[in-house]
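Worked example 2:
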Amino acid sequence: MTLKLAVELMSKVLSILYDDMLPIPLLFYLSSFGNDAIESNFFRYMIMRKRINTLYTVFLLFVGVALFWSCDDDDSFTTSPSNLLTFSKDTIRLDTIFSTVPTATKTFWVYNNSGDGIRCTTVRLEKGNQTGFRVNVDGEYLGQTSGYQVHDVEIRNKDSIRVFVELTSVKTLRDEPTLVEDDLIFTLESGVEQKVNLNAYSWDVDIYNNVVVSRDSTIASTKPILIRGGLKVEENATLTIAAGTTLYFANNAGVDVYGRLITAGTPEANVVLRGDRIDRMFDYLPYDRVPGQWQGIHFYEKSYDNELNYTDIHSTYNGVVCDSADVEKLKLKLYNSQIHNCQGYGLMATNCKIDLYNSQITNTLNDCAAFFGGDVILRHCTVAQFYPFDANRGAALRFTNQYDGKIYPLLHFDVYNSIVTGYADDVIFGGFSDEAVAEYSFHNCLLRTPEDETMAEHLTDVIYEDVEDTITDGEKNFRMIDTDDLKYDFRLVKKSKAVDAGAVLDDGYSVYDRLGIRRDDKPDIGAYEYEATEEDSEEKE
């Protein structure tokens, strides 16, 4: 028994102890959302610390025994072709990556459980430097000076080594992701070759740093565009983003609009604004489903007549922020769009004229949609608060005439044919100061809030959800609320009370839903018109 083996055995013991705990990397990740995100694991963590302290003595015993036994190491090395290595993974997939951008590190273990020591005469990358893979084998880097190989790698019986893999792929000169692969070949002294496949799909990307738009411009591309440092639209300039364009933003990057922004998506080709991580946090979880990946869109004071049409904004910090402005001028028209999975606000507007229709605003740490004064209208919107990372999540919808000690008259706040729901028994907050006007109304809406007679004059044909059901009632409206894999589909199911419950709006905007589906003469409440599915034919428990 070697020291390395003893340490490995102890590591396995510790790993068993940690089975009931969140992985340390996940704890660090959750800490970015605040202390509340990890409080539920705190007591388990303290218990585990006591377990580990108790076993520290056992660890010392392991080490002592190992040191004694390591002095009498009689491992032999075999050349029998029947003695083989085993691998924790026989294929290392790095998902889809951007060309010329280094990937995160993947790792795997190489085990020897054959009964005798095994010596590898070489461990090599089959294609050398042609693919861009970088490999470290048990502390030895397979670089140019070594010919992309290492020699005489010994793995004693019941022992193991660790291998690290990264990739920086070259440009493929293709519009679509292209397979890049290589084999890491272990050549044993017996002459047997064992392989671990390394692969990824490399996608050519145009990279721009600290973009400043100072005159009217259009961005149109079928290739991904990566923005680092941010995108700024200056005063008196208009930036148009064409249908089918996807902008990927680095963590510290967002869009600052002092002029005007237009996103001209279509039902078939949305404009997509998202983070730049296209790999996975865990095998089941793409980074694209994790909030806080980029900084979102900020419309500053003198920015007016902005239009976001058929636009998908997700996994950001704040989705859209609108600074206080002249309420006689339209600040933002958000239509046929979605803002989803934000670590801050979904949409926050202070003293602005805002027009929203056929739009989905969902799952945010702070309020999904918050309006502090202004002139606001919502038509056929789905506002749903199912943010999974923090029980202290904000409201689904907040509207008020005050913010941060300042008074902002709420001139109009009118909501038509919209769903406002979530986990809590009350996901709507309206708090008003008597120092300013506060005019609001809800028409043909599905609301998750307790019935309040003082609000009756502001409500017309409103449907209330059962607020006693704090777990599933809101979820039952939608096709998918999967908090384990962070998958959501806010299209309606047949049993939803929103189906056929809306009013026909003669506004020219509501003929089609967010996906371009034509509404019938009994329109559904929310951003999506119900479409029959096979699942709807089966009653859900």
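The CA atoms of residues 437 and 505 lie 26 Å apart. The chain is about 10% helix and 40% strand.
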